[in-house]
Amino acid sequence: MASSTSIPVTHHHASELPREAADLVAVEEPLEIRVEGRSVALTMRTPGHDEELAVGFLLTEGVITSVDDILELDVCSAQTGGPANVIDVRLTHPESVNLDRLSRHIFTSSSCGLCGKATIDSIHQQHDPISVGRALRPTPLVLLSLPAKLRARQATFEQTGGLHAAGLFTELGEIAIIREDVGRHNAVDKVLGRALLNRRADLAQLGLLVSGRIAFEIVQKALAARVSLIAGISAPTSLAVELARDSHQTLIGFLRDGRFNLYTGRLQ
Questions:
Q1: What is the pTM of this model?
Q2: How far apart are the C-alpha atoms of 101 and 121, rounded to whole Å?
Q3: Inter-CA distances, 244 with 128, 227, 261, Å
Q4: How far is it, in rounded angstroms, from Cα 58 to Cα 65?
Q5: Cα–chain-centroid distance for residue 156?
Q6: Less Cβ crowding at N or C end of the chain, within 10 Å?
Q7: Distance between CA atoms of residues 252 and 241, nearest Å
Q8: CA distances from 160 to 5, 155, 215, 241 (A)
Q9: Would you kindly state where each structural domain of the chain is located, as residue ranges?
């Protein structure tokens, strides 16, 4: 699937006459996620890596905890002959999932993956805080090296300027997985889904890097996947800081231009 498409535009510049041109823009299309044939979410995403997106979404929703919980991933279309914008996930033990609770029938916009979830207390009813002894602790120099590495692998962003990116990195600064998407929470779900499909057993030993701001739902998704460190190129929100602090996660913001802010946790 194409992640960008060419659109005709009229280019204006202060020192030039208007001229016709073509501009590459990021593709945005709906993806319906189903579990056992029942629709549970509709998200606007950049096509590509849809299986990872569905798996990461179900991981961060607490529906699955390992790849062994998945019996089959069925990529299909909502209508015969239509685009493949539906993922139906069949579970190994479907009887263990409350599909009535899961089926929220909500629309997840490109800018918000939280969709009305309640408070930090409700999150901690589902996910325990990270064990302090398991936390990732890279050096400041490793962290400062990460933005350039992420940007170097943002192929579609270079074309369009319109996509978020998320990456999982090691304590030594190696970016193990990177994904792009029009929605920052989708990019996070994609990298977490890929890690699960790759059977990465201990995500507490990986950090999560996002190209934009760090909102509450990003920290929540990291906590659900047991990721102990979240870093962002831009600012965190107050609720993101509060959740990270209460969950014993390290939270880093404004990681750019040779500097960063450490909001919670500690480094080497």
A1: 0.86
A2: 18
A3: 12, 11, 14
A4: 9
A5: 16
A6: C
A7: 9
A8: 9, 9, 23, 31
A9: 29-117, 132-264
174-232 tens-digit pLDDT: 999 999 998 899 999 999 999 999 998 778 889 999 998 999 889 999 999 999 999 99
User: 171-208 burial, b if ≥16 CB within 10 A, otherwise e?
Assistant: eebebebbbbbbbbbbbbbbbbbbbbeeebeebbbbbb
The third-level CATH classification (topology) of the domain covering 29-117 is: Ubiquitin-like (UB roll) (3.10.20)
Choose the most confident range, by mean pLDDT, from 39-43, 131-135, 229-233: 229-233
CATH code, residues 132-264: 3.40.140.10
User: Comparing C-alpha atoms, which of 51, 42, 57, 39 is closest to residue 224?
Assistant: 57
> What sign does the CA torsion over 128, 131, 136, 137 have?
positive
Instruction: Give dist(CA 119, CA 33) in Å, integer.
Output: 25
Nearest to 106 by CA among 33, 37, 54, 182: 33
Residues acting as catalytic residues:
112
Per DSSP, the three-state class of 153 is coil
β pairing state of 38-45 and 4-13: unpaired
The span from the CA of 113 to the CA of 216, in Å, is 9
**Alpha carbons 21 and 7: distance in angstroms, whole number:** 9
Neighbouring C-beta atoms of residue 28, cutoff 10 Å: 17
Which two structure tokens, joined as six digits, stand for 132? 């302090």
